[in-house]
Amino acid sequence: MSSNVAVIGAGSWGTALASVCADNSHHVTLWVRDNSLAEEINSKHTNHKYLPDVSLSPLITASTDLEATVKGKKVVLLVVPSHATRSVARQLAPYLEPDVLLIHATKGLELDTLKPMSTVIREEVPKEIGERIVVLTGPSHAEEVIRKSPTTVVVASASQAAMMHAQDILMNPYFRVYTNPDVIGAEIAGSLKNVIALGAGLSDGLGFGDNAKAALLTRGLAEISRLGSKLGANPLTFAGLAGVGDLVVTCTSKHSRNWRAGYLLGQGKSLQDTLDELGMVVEGVRTTSAAHTLALREGVEMPITHVLYGVLFEGKSPRQAVLDLMGRGRTFEREDIPSFRQ
Q1: First vs last Cα of the chain: how many Å apart?
Q2: What does pLDDT average to over the chain?
Q3: Is 193 marked active-site?
Q4: So what's the pLDDT on residue 77?
């Protein structure tokens, strides 16, 4: 059964999710900030800046009016950068229907509070809506989803009914949706994989090869699991789509802007030049800062995150960062064995 869906945010991922909904026969209103982009989507059915050479469904209509986009809609997808999530959620709140299904698909931590996005949104919307928030995450490049390449994701929520409703809205022959009640695990995994992807790109930029990247992904997953478990996540989540699935796709693909940012850094470009060249939000940069602080606060060992923080914010050279990692003291790989160092 078709629904009226609002998608807030017309970047590559928001546009791809709007396309998924339209392919499921839902009528989609896509909120954009830029009048010229709204005109392009409505007249040409394209979003050339974020997804070039792709035609969008005529069931997608763009609007710059947030109230008109959201009011009366029973399904709202929030797909804006992490640094804008709180302010946009606050603006949305007065217009949300009491029984709305609110899905967010932003992977990041709020820099000032270190909170995941579902917590940020919950603080800004009515309580009954906040209790049913759904997190959408997993291995999903927008560039492939928009071309209907087979993709499998996961939705997480404290509400089983909300998760199942999200499945009904999103699932189709090329976009498979699983459910998982572990909201904390899904968000920590989705956020921190961007940090490790920066490291993977940096390693490739330095020309270190497959051995180094395999080690980085494996030990990076250990860091993500360590922090997530400390925060109350189910460790099994990190072996699933939100964890290892998203980590692999983000660390090994040139579609990943986090990988590309790391690659440019590894080739000697400054952080500012890297961000200017990419021209889009690189969530891993902010998340590295937040995760570094969060790990120190929680007393969790995250050496990859800490050396990347040094590269991004303290002027450490990428090559020295790798040497620092390789020169750490001896330890066990398995964390269920009491560790010792010599």
Answers
A1: 63
A2: 94
A3: yes
A4: 98
Q: What is the CATH number of domain 4-181?
A: 3.40.50.720
Of 32, 58, 64, 35, whose CA–CA distance to 46 is shortest? 58
User: Measured on CA atoms in the order 273, 274, 279, 284, is the torsion positive or negative?
Assistant: negative
Domain boundaries, the chain: 4-181, 188-326
Give domain 188-326's CATH superfamily: N-(1-d-carboxylethyl)-l-norvaline Dehydrogenase; domain 2 (1.10.1040.10)
The encoded tokens of residue 47 equal 């979003």
Whether pTM exceeds 0.70: yes
E strand intervals along 145-294: 151-156, 175-180
Dist CA 341 CA 329 (whole Å): 6
Radius of gyration of the chain (CA): 20
Q: Which of 107, 115, 193, 213 is catalytic?
A: 193
d(CA 156, CA 154): 7
CA dist., res. 106 & res. 129, Å (int): 18
Q: Could you tell me which residues come within 8 angstroms of residue 52 by beta carbon, excluding any fewer than 6 positions away?
A: none
Look at residue 336 in the predicted model and tell me its pLDDT: 67
Q: Tens digits of per-residue pLDDT, 231-276?
A: 999 999 999 999 999 999 999 998 899 999 999 999 999 999 999 9
Percentage of residues in the chain having pLDDT higher than 90: 89
